[in-house]
């Protein structure tokens, strides 16, 4: 598990479709695709298409060990809201509206492994709380 060094992550190749993924929803701003190692019958990742999740394409801040959600500024409210709304669309498409979870693991202590902002949408079984 490597924190962000400014290098591209595997999700860049998923966005560019160099690496195939099972896409659930896509628009001009976000991509939602099935997690390769699902932790529930439905496990979809929702990511912003921009390079590191929040900074604008071409204006990257090469800051090491940056947790994507900690890069959020007021000007990012639109994309953050768009990601959350996309998670609703995913839940509806996947038929899990009776109960699901939206999670952002942030930093090593929270088991973040890919340093491109992503929302996990989990459902299709009884989920435990607290997650541990
Ligand atoms: P994190 O632990 O950073 O919150 O979650 C990263 C997620 O990305 C993990 O659940 C992991 O299974 C998923 N993942 C990592 N590499 C790939 C990949 O190449 N394709 C897909 N579809 N998911 C991936």
Automatic annotation (TrEMBL):
Q: Which domain of life is it from?
A: Eukaryota
Quote the range of the complete protein represented.
69 to 200 of 200
Q: Which organism is it from?
A: Ambrosia artemisiifolia (Common ragweed)
Sequence motif Histidine triad motif, location on chain: 116-120
What region holds the HIT domain?
Answer: 10-132
What Gene Ontology molecular function terms does this protein carry? adenylylsulfatase activity
Q: Which residues are catalytic?
A: 118 (tele-amp-histidine intermediate)
Protein name, as recorded: HIT domain-containing protein
